[in-house]
Amino acid sequence: MEKLTAKKILVVGATGGIGTHLVKLLHQSGANVFITGRNVRRLADLADSIGLSNSKLFAGDISVSSDVEALAAAVSAEMGTLDILINAAGIGIIKPLEQLTIEDFNRSIQTNLLGSFLLVKSFLPAMKEVKKGLIINIPGVLGKVPMAGAAAYSASKYGLVGMMQCIREELKRTEIRITNIFLGGVDSPFWETIDLKVQKEKMIREEEAARAIWFLCQQPASGVVSEMVLQPFNHQAI
Fold it and tell me: Are 227 and 212 in contact (CB under 8 A)?
């Protein structure tokens, strides 16, 4: 397994439950971490908790191209070319079609798909120059299997999977690796805005999901984990 010591890693969505645990794991492993998210206060609190300087955090919205461009400039100035880009940002809107609005659909696509596109568009060129790097996305199980009420969410996540598969084909002459981790049923704030009866006590804990991503950051240089599926025993979808 690859060691994380001094690895230059950007965690997008660092203020989320999984992202926060992941940042702490990476920092404890000696990685050189840069964090971003939309919540300025949570970013600052996270940075303070691990002794991260303000030059290694950036508050912004990945669905806004100017924010992503500014993020890329900040990361480049502070760290140079990334070794690992981790996109843990995203929103979940679960509603029956009759209740799903155009705004709901657009928000899902803009954050989960367009935001991912903007990140790759901004950070991949530098990786291509050195012909190496690792990009980790989190499509979730609903990027593989359908669920009632998940039309907008699954559209964005299926789109993300398809986009990254095409980009992977463009990178075959390089050592740039792309990994998708399909998480299902994580006890995270994802469920706080969703009107579904769920058994959170039977879900995967945030810190366990973060540890799976941390593990993927250490995959051997001689190979690639193209996909990982992690879901609770009680409702396996794959």
Answer: no
